[in-house]
Design the sequence.
């Protein structure tokens, strides 16, 4: 897993939460995926629950994807790939990717300069491994 700065983890977790809520259902399964991402990326003993709370507040009080994606845009391809994978894990967790979710992924990929083709390959790999 990647080790990221705490403020970046909060922003990325907020983006993951935004993706989870796009279908208006923020399930326990989705929360667990995000919780696991946060936990595996913390450098220190900061409470995962505290980070999750901050990320949920950030997501609730922000309505622009740009706030979340600018953190990722300047990251390495490896970090972008990991984040896209986390997003797809959330979106396919309910076995139904709707038009809003697909559109969100295309917009995010465009904003962080990540290819749709690679995103699609990650999605298919995750679906096959379910």
Sequence:
């Amino acid at each position: 897993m990647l080790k990221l700065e705490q403020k970046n983890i909060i922003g990325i977790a907020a983006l993951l939460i935004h993706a989870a809520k796009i279908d208006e259902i923020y399930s326990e399964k989705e929360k667990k995926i995000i919780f696991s991402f946060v936990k595996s990326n913390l450098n220190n003993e900061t409470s995962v629950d505290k980070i999750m709370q901050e990320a949920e507040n950030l997501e609730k009080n922000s309505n622009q994807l740009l706030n979340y994606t600018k953190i990722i845009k300047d990251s390495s391809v490896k970090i972008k790939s990991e984040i896209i994978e986390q997003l797809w894990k959330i979106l396919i967790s309910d076995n139904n990717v709707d038009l809003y979710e697909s559109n969100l992924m295309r917009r995010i990929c465009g904003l962080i300069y990540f290819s749709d083709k690679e995103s699609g390959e990650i999605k298919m790999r995750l679906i096959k491994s379910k």
Q: What stands out?
A: The chain is about 75% helix and 0% strand. Residues 9 and 75 are 13 Å apart (CA to CA). The mean pLDDT is 91.
